[in-house]
# Entry
Amino acid sequence: MDNMEFTSSYSLKGILREVLRYKTGVFSLLIFAILILLSVYAYLSMPYDKAKELWNDSQAWLKYPRNAIPTWLAFFTGKNLPKNIYLKDPKIESVSETPKIVKYVYDINYTYDDFPSEFNIFLNSTFKNNPPNLRIYWINPYGDRILLFEKVQRAEKDIFYIGNESSIEQKFIEYYKEKLGFYPNFPVTVMRGLFGETENPKVNKGNYKLEIEVQFADKSDTIEIEPIIYGKVYGVAGTDHLRRPLELGILYGTPIDLAFGLGASLSITVIQLILATVSGWYGGWVDNLIQRLTEIYMLLPFLPLMIMISLFYKLTIWQLLVVLIILSLFGSGIKTQRAMVLQVKTLPYIEAARTYGASNMRIVFLYIIPKILPPVIPGLIISIPAYIFLEAILSLFGVLDPTEPTLGRIIEEAFQNGALYKGFYYWVIEPSLIIVLLAISFALLGFVIDRIVNPRLKEV
Amino acid sequence: MANTVLKLNNFTVVYKTQQGPLEAVRNVSFELKEGETLAIVGESGCGKSSLARGILRLFPRNLEKASGEIYINETEVLSLKEEDFRKNIRWSKISMVFQGAMNSLNPILKIVHQVAEPLIVHFGMEKTSAYKRAKEILNLVGISESFAERYPFELSGGMKQRVVIAMALVTRPNIVILDEPTSALDVITQANIMNLLKVLKKELNLSYIFITHDIATASELADRVAVMYAGEIVEISPSEKFYNSPAHGYTMMLLNSVPTLKTTKKLKSIPGSPPSLINPPSGCRFHPRCQYVMDICREKEPPMFKKDEEHYAKCYIGESHE
# Structure
């Protein structure tokens, strides 16, 4: 059908205009436009391979908060939840020359309503023989100067996890005991000790100081200090248990899911359509073979088979797509489409085509398939979400390639890490919502196209 | 005397059925001259369409046997290989206008492509030249160029029929088989199409085999009329003789069942229904329904009697039966 010009109302533009006549059509196309624009933006800003590598690189996300909720969600809690505080530009004082001692002082103005989640200090030093020794002091708004700990750096690159040090916790319990005159009647964690009021289990808003005294072993030694106070909110979509921002996974996962669903639905429908037409058109033993094969295929337990195959062969998502297509070659679609072919086959125009010598191929592809295509297309579109769901299901069973950031993968990880139990609802809801949105918009588009190709359903 | 373009000799088509072989067309012989129209009339299921398709060698899957001889321009074509027949005869020498214009066009092809389709698949013609030729022929059947780019559903029934006729003529055959070309159309459109067919015949010097169950339309076009009953041609005569002096019992009763404009007569239907072709009646196949039935009709199959100049009938009426 090359270089056939269509009259305007049957061109792509015409179809689009027809779809846009329905509100549901506008809605679904809008969602697609947004998702596709986001995907294009994601792919333009970072190629997929790099994003995938980054996604699986546990070291890349150390400076992000763990399990932080999306920033916009914090608005609904009514509290001003802390964001990450990157401490920079310290006041540097030289305390003594021999041994070389340098003091770094960071000013912190803490005004959030909740305690931070973690407090890490990233160290990067160069030294001749021995690593530097660090003394870390904390000055709270009461003006008390507390020595948190004294420690020698273990390697050139080191991280001090202040939040996890039980010795610091012990120190704060002592401090509270001294301040209150009795053993504190609430549990004292490091974060509470650092940022809390002594009387109440509340955040003490005010100015804090972090003092780090570094004693170098040699004069030529240097150090870079990067203290980070981790917040409880991050970005548009929050972060997961490995501190990865979820928006990255969702942005790169959505197009993968879309491609998976579209690829599966399109290729399965087209192959089934061709098989059904061949079966109906040629009849005889070809028909018999295809029909019996279809019946056998329809009896196969599809999901267990898929799970078994992906367990045995450790397939990537694209190899799985091929397996899926092969397993769905002879689906139930063949039965209904063959019935349509048998009906179309007897129409005089097909007989006429045979008379003037059109080949079987020409009749199948130019005469029969286009005729039975209209009722097939809505089904094609509506079945796309089914394959996206299938991807999610297989991911949830943990049988898909774990390095691939897909929506199902994100849900699976949330599930594995007890997101719902721990109250990280955003972690499950975000990818699920995208899947549901995709499903709804495909379904709506399918219904609209159904109404267009099936005039009896047309709205007046 | 015009040349004979098509000649059938004892043409028989037998189908396989579960109850046994079925003779849909039995010992049909006739000649068709250049520029002549032969109407084949008969009731539903009498084998008209089987005969038409048989001439084009369009047999259904359950064909058991097709025997006899078909000469097209003095070449025997029934024994040709299928491939040779398809290449050299079908659609290039003889083409067909199918029954039911409504479904005779591919709904997804524009009519110009539709008409060009035989040229493209049959002669492997270039698309542009095929389109040009298709537009010429569409013009000839009275469809203006502006309609060429339309799809079948945008056309009226009469226009669709014209397109189907254009499709049959685009390869310039000498013989066109018209299988009930007007059956799905209203009377005015029917008249238009009949006029068109007359004009085309004159212009292109075509020979028609015009298959219909409608005796009135047959009278419009036919030079000769063949009456078919139960797979056989029972009477073949020039059209005036067919209407004025029918010789076969079936033809007589058939004409009695059709109203005419000029005379007032009481219409009489033919009792009974067409016989089973699997177990046809003995003797004359029409005898169970014939009002002129004689003893001999029941026992002996009548041969083709010559009743008059170019007038033959398979009937004992008016014959001295020995």
In short: Strands of chain A lie at 85-86, 91-96, 101-110, 118-126, 133-139, 145-152, 157-161, 206-215, 222-230. Confidence is low (pLDDT under 50) at residues 1-9 of chain A. The first helix of chain A runs from residue 12 to 20. The CA atoms of residues 81 and 294 of chain A lie 58 Å apart.
